């Protein structure tokens, strides 16, 4: 998945969830999707609970989060 594809699926609007990154056209935040994936919830299960999502949306959310980590500099 290329960066262009990621940003076609992710948006940040100050009027929606205080600007937190969400899947475009939804109020489903990236952090929620990434948390579910981290807990081992399958793509199919996520889509069952959030039917407006597609597998590509979920992959874009994970890729978006990985890009943030790639460029974020902080001490652990």
UniProtKB/TrEMBL annotation:
It comes from the Bacteria. SUPFAM superfamilies: Homeodomain-like (SSF46689). InterPro entries: DUF433, Homeodomain-like_sf, WH-like_DNA-bd_sf. The lineage of its organism: Bacteria, Pseudomonadati, Planctomycetota, Candidatus Brocadiia, Candidatus Brocadiales. This is Antitoxin. It holds the Pfam family DUF433.
């Amino acid at each position: 998945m290329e960066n262009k594809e990621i940003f076609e699926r992710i948006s940040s609007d100050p009027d929606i969830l205080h600007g937190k990154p969400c899947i475009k056209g939804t109020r489903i935040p990236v952090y929620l999707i990434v948390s579910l994936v981290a807990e081992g919830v399958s793509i199919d299960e996520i889509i069952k609970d959030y039917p407006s999502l597609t597998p590509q949306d979920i992959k874009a959310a994970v890729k978006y989060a990985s890009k943030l980590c790639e460029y974020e500099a902080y001490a652990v």
